[in-house]
Structure formats: structure tokens, C-alpha cells
């Protein structure tokens, strides 16, 4: 496994592989890796010859400076995990490498940018698409792998790919959960033992909706799910919605394809998101 810190060195390494028509996959991460990230590497290895994993805590997507400051950065742990997973190249640039000069970045990501996470973290998806475009330019991958847990993020990246007409295929990978149902997340490290138990209500509410989806009206499902969450101590709900997976607008018609239930809540001091596909 090779560790690379500059775009120039990365391009030099990848160019001959591209010329030899090797399929290159990119798994972009912000580090603090867990089994969910490893599942992305595993899927990438199945579909590509070379797997590049980037580790970069991107400052432009944090709407709260404190959130950026406390984001976990266990580099040694991450590198060992990637080595064990069989990753080929790890790209770990500095902030100066990715942002050598001040930039004004703003692209049209569609109305979905301003819904759900976009409402609570204004400008977040501009920052996400800004760095992902830079990573795509650096790696020039054939495929890029993202986790379904960040459902809205994947949608925004797909919109960005269409906007620039980029020749990269976006692959969405299933959510990996702990044995008790909690969606794996780098943020889980901040949960106290008590918060960790309270956080389970998010996946329980989502799975209640999934299990009862055929039998109960959407309004009823939403009411029960929200009540479950609101009655759990230490959990403050930001939103729980059943939405069209392409527009993220609320949807009550069960015949619509690509429906998804999405939730975000603060558990103690930690904000968590989760979702399940309904159709």
C-alpha cells in the first residue's frame, strides 16, 4: 500500500495504470474509519483493479468550527485498517494542497440541496461537492464508492457529476450497522454509554416504518416514529420524513418508486443521521 500526500505524486502514480486500462476506484473518506468504510473498500476491490482511499477532513463542509475541531483523526488506526483491507493507495493531502488559494465555489445542486440536512447545515453540500470534485480531478476514477447512510450527500454528488458531465460512475453501498442496529458512524465515538443506548431509537423508528409500511398510512407511520424518538430521553429530533428519494420532498403516495425514510437527531451532544429504503 502506498501513502501519497500530493496531487502531483498521485497523478504520476496513476497515469501509467490508466494507460494500461486499469479500472480505478476512489473511496473518499474523512478518516476515523470503521467497518462501514471497509465495506466500501471491499466492494471497490470487487469492481476495480486499483483502489484509492482518500483521508481528508474537509474544512469547507463544516458549518460549525467546533465540529471541525473535534472531528476524530486517528491516522495510525486508519492506515492499519486500510492496509488490512487491501487498499492500494492512500491519498492524505494537507489543507494547503487541496486549497492552495481562496476559492469561490457555488454550483446548482437542485432544490434538494436546501432540504433536510441542507436546512440544518446551510452551505454544507457546496463544501462536500467542492472537495469531491477536487478528488475526482486528482484521481480521475472510473468508479467512486459512497455509503447510503449519507443518502442526501450521494444525491448531491450525483447532481454535481451531472453538472460537470464527469465520466465517473457513482456506486451507493449499503449501511453497515452494529449488532444492535446503530448505523456505524465516525461520530459514534462521541456518544457516552447512556447516549449510545438512547441512539438506538433512531434505527428502531426507521425499522418500525419499514416493517409496517405496507399496512399503515404514511401519516400514521410518521406519527408513531416521531413519538418513539420524542419520548426517548436525551434525544432531540431534527426531522423524520418519508420522502421521494430523488427530490427529497415529503411523499405520502406509497406507489411512488424510490421512497426513503430519513432521520436526523441530536443524541446528547452528538448529531446523528440514518435512513432506510422503503421501495
Ranges where pLDDT stays below 50 over 5 or more residues in a row are none
How are the strands of the biggest sheet laid out side by side? 1-4-3-2-5-6
- Broad CATH class of the largest domain: Alpha Beta
SSE sequence, one letter per element: EHEHEHHEHHHEHEHHEEE
Bin the strand percentage.
15-25%
Helix content: 40-55%
- CATH architecture identity of the largest domain: 3-Layer(aba) Sandwich
The main sheet comes to: 6 strands, parallel
Number of strands: 9
Count of separate structural domains: 2
CATH fold naming of the largest domain? Rossmann fold
Termini separation (Å)?
A: 39 Å
CATH superfamily of the largest domain: HUPs
In terms of structural class, how would the helical and strand content be classed? alpha/beta
What is the gist of this entry?
By secondary structure, the protein is an alpha/beta fold.
Write up this protein.
With 279 residues, this protein is of the alpha/beta class. The protein folds into 2 domains: 2-173, HUPs (Rossmann fold, 3-Layer(aba) Sandwich), CATH 3.40.50; 186-274, Pantoate-beta-alanine ligase, C-terminal domain (Pantoate--beta-alanine Ligase, Chain: A,domain 2). Helices cover 41% and strands 20% of the residues. The chain has 10 helices and 9 strands. It has helices at residues 7-19, 35-47, 65-69, 75-85, 95-98, 117-120, 124-139, 151-164, 193-212, 218-230, and strands at 2-4, 24-29, 50-55, 89-91, 143-147, 169-173, 235-244, 259-267, 270-277. A 6-stranded parallel β-sheet has the order 1-4-3-2-5-6, sandwiched between helices. A hairpin with a 2-residue loop joins strand 8 and strand 9 (270-277). Helix 7 packs across helix 8 and helix 9 (193-212) runs antiparallel to helix 10. The longest helix has 20 residues, at 193-212. The protein is globular and about 55 Å long. The model has no long low-confidence stretch (mean pLDDT 97).
